[in-house]
Amino acid sequence: MSSLGDICLERLKVLFLTRRVPDDDNFKKLLKEIYGNIKNEDLSDHLIVAHKKFNGFRYEFKKEVINLSKEFLKG
How does DSSP assign the chain, residue by residue? Predict the structure, then answer.
């Protein structure tokens, strides 16, 4: 069984790859708790700082968010 962090990480990858928020109310609530309202045109800016606000998640999860941010900006 996947942990909440793993599930959120998978959805976060979808967010990076498609620039669309997954149709998952719990995930949307989590994102809003992390960095406020989501504006699609500003996703890259929000995601760069999102790792700073992931309270309660493992360091590896935060590190993965940072790595995804860097990869996203390269593309």
Answer: ---HHHHHHHHHHHHHHHSS--S-HHHHHHHHHHHSS--GGGHHHHHHHHGGG-TTS-HHHHHHHHHHHHHHHH-
